[in-house]
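Aim 2, interim progress: modelling of the GN1-bound target.
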Amino acid sequence: MEEIFKLYGWNVINRIPIHQGLINSTYSINTTQGDFIFQSINHHVFKTPSAIDNNINAISNFVKKQDPHYLFTHLVPTNEGKTLIEWEGGYFRAFQKIDGYALSVLENENQVEEAAKQFSKFTQVLKGFEVDLLQDTLPQFHDLNLRYHQFTAAIENGDAQRIESTQEEISFLKEHKKLVDIYDHFIKNKEAKKRVTHHDTKISNVLFNKVDGVEAAICVIDLDTVMAGHFISDVGDMCRTCLCAVSEEEKDLNKVKVDSKKWDALKKGYLHNMESELSHFELDHFFYSGQFMIYMQALRFLTDHLNRDIYYGAKYDGQNLVRTQNQIRLLEEYNKLA
Ligand code: GN1
Ligand code: MG
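Predicted structure of the complex, ligand included:
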């Protein structure tokens, strides 16, 4: 890494690993020139890091012109002006560090409303951006048909013992396949518009800070999956990660509960910026968004468990099964809101 830091001309004082995301490796770098976020991109997941680099720079340029005060994680160029570095088969980049903190669960409705406002503001600020300029950094990322297909393939070809011991979870997910049919119906409708979509609005991807002594969400981070997409992805992942007092890692399923006041706050915060943008047809799918994302995440976690954790990895045996069970319970609790 020291060699790469030289390309930025940094005098590094210290570097601290940040263990937030499941995919990339992230460090906070303290230098005599300022503080930066430095990341190595997981190119086994993101096969074309240049697509991410193009997208973030395109959006960054748009924002600088249209809305210069909008707080954005602009990429930092090296002394040669590069924002993506290829080094010994790896890919690296740096961002301006923004003062703030990320949370993995939210404690109160104010935080939920604040977070939802930031994610909806992101799409709203980029309303005039030509969405077709965005490249697909992960093709079919939130295609629920593909995720269902990957799940059925894992039931066919995955680890035999794990398949045997997860029959209950497999049945649950099969029984809820109608959520895939609703998705099909949704995306085929002309009123379901493609917009600049974050695609990873899990709650740890918004920064909070105190503004005039009051806690506020100040900016969204982790823009690798920003692509053209549907609002159900962004609203859905917020539902998945904002409404419950425990995270997807929680083993005690009795703690997995959905707070209806937080749901009201999420809706209020998101619609604050996006209500006038969404069609009636889209608004009719607001609740479905949460079902869509929680269900997809359960499918993805179980698929990975059956495939012996090749995608998400596992810090302990059965971690992706725990996550699956957690998301299944979350879906059951979420459905009670209806
Ligand atoms: C991954 O790496 P991270 O934590 O930002 C995943 C998301 C999942 C999430 C589940 C590229 O996000 O889709 O919702 O884990 N990102 C990718 O925690 O697969
Ligand atoms: Mg991410």
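The chain has two domains: 2-98, 109-335. Residues 2-98 form a domain with the Phosphorylase Kinase; domain 1 fold (CATH 3.30.200.20).
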